[in-house]
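seq:
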Amino acid sequence: MGILRQLGENGSASVRYSVMKVSILAVILALVISVPALPQSDKASTLNVTVLTQDERAIGDAYVVLHDYQTSGHGNVSENWETRTQADGSFSFVVEPRCYDLFVSKGAMLPYSQRICVGRKPVSKLRIKLHTDPHPRLLLQ
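struct:
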């Protein structure tokens, strides 16, 4: 604006146009730089889980389902992810910050199910202990 005052009323139109272009570019640049600094609600987080026995031994090859009950996809079907635990009892999912239903099952162990809520941390850790099933077979008559 100081340049425009120096040119007075008879200032060059091209100079005024150049000053306006620079001002617009400065505003756009400020917006582009500040947008990544805004909090992002859909930032993904890694959920790392370890499945153990009561005496802290790893449970490998356990069946795992993570169910996103809050959102629905095609035909109002919620998202499900399935995996098996590694030999060290671990598994991980990359998820959005929200709540999920977690189900873990392995042979003669009681199944585990829990609603868990993942925050905006880059990594969330959870340790699950499965109990031995005292009645491994249910006889239906």
